[in-house]
Design a protein that fits this description.
With about 290 residues, this protein is α/β, with parallel strands linked by helices. The protein has eight helices and twelve strands. Helix 1 (about 45-55) runs parallel beside helix 3.
Amino acid sequence: MIALWIPAPFDRREGDVAEDEEMPVRVRTLFLSDLHLGTRGCQAGLLLSFLRDYDADTVYLVGDIVDGWQLRSGWYWPQEHNDVVQKLLRKVRKGARIVYLPGNHDEFLRDYVGTNFGGIEIAETAIHEAADGQRYLVIHGDQFDMVVRHSPWLAHLGDGAYTLALTLNTVINRIRRRVGLSYWSLSAWAKLRVKNAVSFIGRFETILAEEARRQGANGVICGHIHHAADRAIGDLRYLNTGDWVESCTGLIEHYDGRIEVLHYPSILRAREAEAAPRAVTGRRAVA
């Protein structure tokens, strides 16, 4: 079963995954969830670029990192997915602490809570104390999704429809790349326009915030619903990491304790916009 997390071969070293020339941005903590490695919807190329751009003292993998549901129905593990795993393991070798909190799609790892694989700690939940003293409950969130907990067959049925939407998403973005357009998520766009989905997200946020209160925390950091967020619910702070199949988002904590949502496609677009005038100036100078 562990092969789903670290597929053989898994002993590659420094030179096997190419590194960017620029130094990565250093942050105190990085929170990522819902990578869904092992599915065609995983944006592994963007994720690998993100992991090259950001280093952290501590990395929380907040569930659904590997998609055991999809891998059981049909094996899919391209080289880019292996490169993501190798990049995470390399961060451990360079001194980062990585804590893996399994979700419903990688729930097989919950059998190994309390153990350590390749320097990666497996835990059900965690309490993270930020540099400013604020305490956050870190949890995937499926534990409070009533469909997942009490009607798993319905959750699997919904997952099939979601997979179809992601397939369409992949096709659309392949076409967009060919015509020079940036990444755009069909499934995320549709989800935010469906009344029931919006209502579910609101209930989910409230329930998770109340669980953080029950555990004496100042807020909660979770994943599961593929909807990045940072907002106040009463006197509590609700943060969601988002995902790497639709929005390509994560959370970072700076060394002063500030936590923010990063939307990686927006960062890349800003870089491209900044680089464009320099490229034009360079061509003029040559002319």
